[in-house]
Amino acid sequence: MELKQWLTILSAELETNDVVMDDDAVRTLLALARDSAHEVERIAAPLTTFVVGIAVGRGAELTTAAATATTLLLHHEAAD
Fold first, then answer.
1. Is residue 63 part of a domain?
2. Both ends of the chain: CA-CA distance in Å?
3. CA 6 – CA 48 distance, rounded (Å)
4. Would residue 7 count as lying in a domain?
5. Alpha helices of 1-80 — where are they, by DSSP H?
6. How far apart are CA 67 and CA 19, in angstroms?
7. Which domain holds residue 36?
8. pLDDT tens-digit readout, 17-69
9. Around Cβ 49, how many Cβ atoms within 10 Å?
10. Which CA distances in Å does 47 have to 17, 18, 50?
11. How confident is the model at residue 74 (pLDDT cuts 50, 70, 90)?
12. pTM of this prediction?
């Protein structure tokens, strides 16, 4: 199954069709997952994107929430 097809099916089943999963959103989430996996540990990737998703569900913009998480990751790295 292709990614776009999977996201369309999943969104329909979970009734989240109002959330746009365009190429920019996919790139943002994949970059966030990559950064959290490398800066924390691998299992941080899905958990970080889940927490950002909750923030988006509560009204935050995806790019803003992802940028906040990335800033925290970079700040944490600088503090160590």
1. yes
2. 41
3. 21
4. no
5. 3-13, 23-39, 44-57, 62-79
6. 19
7. 21-79
8. 888 889 999 999 999 999 999 999 999 999 999 999 999 999 999 999 999 99
9. 18
10. 22, 22, 5
11. confident
12. 0.85
The token pair at 47 is: 């958990």
φ/ψ (deg, to 5) at 41: -165, 165
| Locus of tokens 């190429």 | 23
- Let me know if residue 59 belongs to a domain: yes
Instruction: Give me the number of domains the chain comprises.
Output: 1
**Cβ contacts of residue 35 below 8 Å, gap of 6+?**
70, 73
Check the CA dihedral 12-15-21-27 and report its sign.
negative
Instruction: Determine, yes or no, domain membership for 2.
Output: no
